[in-house]
Amino acid sequence: MPPRRTRHDPGETTGQTGELERIGPDGRDAVILPVAVGGMDRLDADGRRLVYCLYRAAVAGEPIAWHQTHRNARLVRDFFETIHRNLHLVDARHRPGFDEYVKLLWIHHGPYHHHTHTKFLPHRFDEAALRGAADAVVRGGGEFPASCGNPATEIDQIAPFVFDPEYEPIQTNQSEGIDVVASSSVNYWDRGVTAAMIDALDDEFRHRINVRFALDGHHAVPQIYRRGGLYGDSLDVISHWLTLALPLCRGEEQRAALEALLGFYRSGDEHHFREHMRHWLACNNDVDFLNGFIEAYNDPRGVIGHFAGNVSIRTDDDIIRRISDNALYFEHRMPWPEKYRRTSLDPPVAHAVEAVVETGDSGPISPAAYNLPNYSDIRRNHGSKNVVLANIENTWSPSDQEAAVREFFLPEYQDIVRRHFRPLVRSLQVYLHEIVGHGSGLPDPALPADPRVTLGRLYSALEECRADLVALYHIGDRKLAEIGAYAIGDTDAVLRTSAISYLQGWFARFDTVDGLEVREAHNKGHHLILQYILGGGRNGTGFGARIVEASGNFFVRIDDFDRVHEGFGELLRRIQVIKSTGDARAAADLFDRFGTHLRGDWKANVTARRIRLKSARLKAFVFPRLEPVLRQGRFVDARIHHDETLAAQQYRFRRIENSIRFADDMREDKDEPA
Known about the structure:
Helices cover 45% and strands 13% of the residues. It has 26 helices and 14 strands. Strands 5-6-7-9-8 form a five-stranded mixed beta sheet. The protein has a three-stranded mixed beta sheet with strand order 1-2-12, with helices on one face. Strands 3-4 form a two-stranded antiparallel ribbon. A hairpin with a 2-residue loop joins strand 10 (545-550) and strand 11. Helix 17 packs across helix 19 (459-474) and helix 21 (491-507) packs across helix 22 (521-535). The longest helix is centred in the middle third of the chain and has 27 residues, at 411-437. It is globular, with a radius of gyration of 24 Å. The two termini are 46 Å apart.
């Protein structure tokens, strides 16, 4: 059977086409797609060298991300990679199961699902098979790394983590009425640390992005991420490659951003990271990057950042620029109280890029876009930067898209979704979410602290929901037609496509939630919007949409698109007031009523249909391979290759993630002729 074709746009023709592979029973756990990058040829040699150094700095953070996931994540990875490298020695019956499991570990940086934060178990082997495989590897001459110690002893240690569904089942637990710290298995603290212990610390440590908490008796003791401290070895390697990038920077702001980031890694003082983000915000170069402890989705308190790294190259972004230029126009038309609207706003930095690599919290599972920095005072005083990852957003399977439209949309919606969703509406939703949504609004002058602090566990979910609603509310505004985003005659089709694709699109992804509690921030936002439109408003009557049953299946039907739009506006107003005032109780009431619980019969129906379609639950990506060019020992250029599988990329990352040598990333350790 030939590989399914995959849409790559923009990007040059590469050596890889179609899907690379599907993982899990019937290929449903993940589809692996190759990322195309055509922008390297548009850079000069110094630009390509800069990309390479930033690429290596991103990869060097991988050990940190693995360790942050769970205290045993790297041990489990090393153990299973050893078996995977020696699969020829393992009982043939179990080889597919070990191959599948190690690839899922790579995708998620451990055995917790990237989106749901719940643990997944091996599908095709048990503990006895694991012990047999380890014995076979040892008898065949394979060597487990020193970190694994004696294989039999290590299996005793990791077996509950790998096989027991009740053992530390949730990585990030934000359920109401529990100790979110003690019940979360993420490795931001020792087992036994409680929320009360962290709350007893000074604000300097409670609100810090680069800290882990050790347990000392009945007290939490901060461990700072810095060179010479926690994660010091990896931060040394990252700093080596960032230092090599310094003379290659594309302007003084980028150089200042790198210098501040190096100061942050050297000292651990978050002041330097704030300075880094201010300079990064002012960069508008053809090469961009992220490196650091960025998003706090994995911290149930919404504070500690998980390592993420990326490198990107600017591409065409005309519509994005026009939306950015009109950000204040949209701000003035927000449905929330005027005192929470910005009265002046410099056009936010916004552009489309091609992602060259993403690591840690950003890859292989990638966002479609991001809006940074996360510091509310910097956003208020200096604005934000909006980055759309065009080659990620536009890499998808047309066959899967068509199958989903036929299966999950009522017949009267299928044609407009086919004609308008992927070619237009999906991109506009992303642009408005990032450029207008995240950058909008003001806190109440009386709010004593950053909303991120006052809202705590629900801040991320509330903010993602708010940005989605901004996109849904404004996508039919005449201004978008005026700036050329679509023809004025398509306005009604765009509005209808946006509403039904969002509501039905989330309903059709209920199978991606483990159990009946929605945990991930973006998904909580999706669910809040759907449930509010179905049953919010006065007397719980909803806003012109309902779930209907047809031929034994459930669908979203919209009876009144204007009422749905009214509902988007009402919910957006409520959520902005909650954010501006830092009202944690109101946020909890709203999410616990509308944004947390799935109906079992609806989920069961969606899951059965997805199984029948053999639809993958998520996309993960393999990025291009960069290779340094050396002449007489000097680093003079870098080449890009689109030629790796997921396994080849992960094993190469393992080879270079702790290295400061160019030669470790070359297929032949030799110079080119001068």
